[in-house]
Amino acid sequence: MATIAPVDRQRMYLDGAWTASRGGTPLDIRNPADQDLVGRTVLASPEDVERAVAAARASFDSGVWRDTPRQDRAEVLERAADILQERSEYLVDLLTRELGCPRWFSAAAHVPNPIRHLRYYAGLVRSTDPDEPRTDGAGNTSLVTQEPVGVVAAITPWNGPLSSPMLKVAPALAAGCSVISKPAPEAPLTLFELAEALAEAGLPPGVFNLVPGDRDAGAHLVAHEGVDKVAFTGSSAAGKRIMAVCAERIARVTLELGGKSAAIVLPDADLAAFVRKILPMALMVNGQACIAQTRILVPATRHDALVDALAAAFREVPVGDPFAAGTVVGPLISERQRDRVEGYLATGRAEGARVVAGGGRPNGLDAGWYVEPTLFDGVHNGMRIAREEIFGPVVTVIPYRDTDEAVAIADDSPYGLSGSVWTADPDAGLAVARRLRTGMVSVNGHPQAYGSPFGGFKESGIGREMGPEGLRAYQETKSIAVSPG
């Protein structure tokens, strides 16, 4: 286990300065692998939230960033990306300690992807003209322009401490918005590094404000009249409440919510290749990922062979110290999350499902919040373990008779975020992928092209992040009638 001195983050970033909280709650952040102290922060009080909104509102209304030429905004974002890149090794270690995911995953995704997001949106806003003239052939001309939506509240979860906020902060800043970022209390420390990088890069005071907070702080932001847009990632239950509150004042909202994604194994699929590729897709971030492939749909004729192969692979998954090179699954984020996952393990057994791998706590890891990678068989799609988002390393296998039934089972879910199709025939895989009611589908585990939109159908959310769609989410469209020519 790597050793880093605990970090002191007991000041919030408000209006361009590191500022003491007024009545906030001190909080220790502990490593979920061994309970060592990672750092200290303070959860925002209502007064802290008010100060953050006031700073963001004043900065936006002044035009100090909104009216900055887009090429200059892009330069600030690129400088911030350079600063984060220089600190990337430290960021990898810090993020791994507060989240508990394997260090190699932090180094491969959790840190480089947010830096890439900054660079992407800097390039996109630089190359995208916000003005588009339109004529109707009858001598009339309009200038259709894209303007920043205003003050954005970016409310994000703990499972992507830097990447989830950056999917909101980068396009919002690129568009010219001012931002209040509220990270979750479980893993807020890495985001402080972004605040420092933006300040060093020359972002004007008040344009980015950081207030770690609990649900009350988030609710305060969502209902605040000074917030023009809420961008939220989290549970579907919380997303429903946020959408209802935003509707009362017609505030703009983007919601990236839960998932219960299905991996459809077609009859001609290579089972060995499938097992090898599905494990990281199912167990990423120790199973705590909204896009995790947690329902495996398999032809009844190949069911036993696939279950045997998956069970053998699950039993061999290295579980342990997130800093060990071979670790694939580390601890869950907290004792409460482990209790939640273990509750689902009990529920699955009570529903009649059969544990074929895992199902308990790994030996020798008593200090951390560990759960064994668990595979359930004997599952039908009506069971809670097949319908509800568990957010842990738990996967179910469900048999089907034909492709129509596989698609029906996959779509028989309140969610529609991700999914995959596995086959020796790419054209057949594409045809099935087109039928699925979900926002993202992979054929044979191929990764999405960078810049593709991220988001879901149904209770998996509203709107899209990443790509040009992510930038447009932070813009308002205005039409101005002008003189012809």
Automatic annotation (TrEMBL):
<comment type="similarity">
    <text>Belongs to the aldehyde dehydrogenase family.</text>
</comment>
<dbReference type="InterPro" id="IPR029510">
    <property type="entry name" value="Ald_DH_CS_GLU"/>
</dbReference>
<dbReference type="InterPro" id="IPR016162">
    <property type="entry name" value="Ald_DH_N"/>
</dbReference>
<dbReference type="InterPro" id="IPR015590">
    <property type="entry name" value="Aldehyde_DH_dom"/>
</dbReference>
<feature type="domain" description="Aldehyde dehydrogenase">
    <location>
        <begin position="18"/>
        <end position="480"/>
    </location>
</feature>
<keyword id="KW-0560">Oxidoreductase</keyword>
<dbReference type="GO" id="GO:0016620">
    <property type="term" value="F:oxidoreductase activity, acting on the aldehyde or oxo group of donors, NAD or NADP as acceptor"/>
</dbReference>
<dbReference type="InterPro" id="IPR016163">
    <property type="entry name" value="Ald_DH_C"/>
</dbReference>
<feature type="active site">
    <location>
        <position position="256"/>
    </location>
</feature>
<dbReference type="InterPro" id="IPR016161">
    <property type="entry name" value="Ald_DH/histidinol_DH"/>
</dbReference>
<dbReference type="Pfam" id="PF00171">
    <property type="entry name" value="Aldedh"/>
</dbReference>
<protein>
    <submittedName>
        <fullName>Aldehyde dehydrogenase</fullName>
    </submittedName>
</protein>
